[in-house]
Amino acid sequence: MAETRFTPRVLSGIQPSGGLTLGNYLGAIKRFVQTQNAATHETLFCIVDLHAMTVWQDPAALTRNTRELAAGYLASGIDPEKSILFNQSQVPEHTQLGWIFNTVARMGWMGRMTQWKDKAGKNAEAASLGLFAYPALMAADMMIYHATHVPVGEDQKQHVELTRDIATKFNHDYDTAFFPLIEPVIEGPATRVMSLRDGSKKMSKSDPSDASRINMTDDADTISKKIRKARTDAEPLPEIYEGLKDRPEARNLVNIYAGLADCSVTDVMARHAGEGFGEFKPALADLAVEKLAPISAEMARLMEDPAEIDRILSRGAERAREIAAPILAETYRIVGLVR
Ligand code: ATP
Ligand code: MG
Question: Model pTM?
Answer without folding.
Answer: 0.96
